[in-house]
Amino acid sequence: MKLRLYLTFNEDTVREPIIWKLGKQFDVVTNIRTAEVKDHMGLVGLEIEGADDVVERAVAWLGEQGVQVSPIEQNVLEG
Fold it and tell me: How far is CA 46 from the centre of its chain?
């Protein structure tokens, strides 16, 4: 499965290496498509690719870290 997501980071999460941790903790490939990061917030367009269940757990984990996750409309599903 490949998902395209917008990740919104607040001032508590913007300085944390969350995308790096995502790649280390889960067997997923991440691809940053776009990013705008300021001192107090960040917006990242991210592709996450991997096994369906792993991608779902990875997305849930992002939310648990305080990152707001929003789908980009044109997700590409591979199976």
Answer: 5
* 37 domain-assigned: yes
Helix (H) or strand (E) holding 63: helix 52-64
Full residue range of the structural domain in which residue 55 is found: 2-71
Contact between residue 7 and residue 62 where contact means Cβ atoms under 8 Å apart: yes
pTM: predicted TM-score of the whole model, two decimal places? 0.86
Mean pLDDT of the chain: 92
- Is position 78 within any domain? no
> Do residues 19 and 35 lie in contact, with contact meaning Cβ atoms separated by under 8 Å?
no
Cα–Cα distance for residue pair 6/29, rounded to 1 Å: 16
The 10s digit of each residue's pLDDT in 1-13 is 999 999 999 999 9
- CATH code of the domain covering residue 9: 3.30.70.260
pLDDT digits (tens, 9 = 90+) for 53-66: 999 999 999 999 99
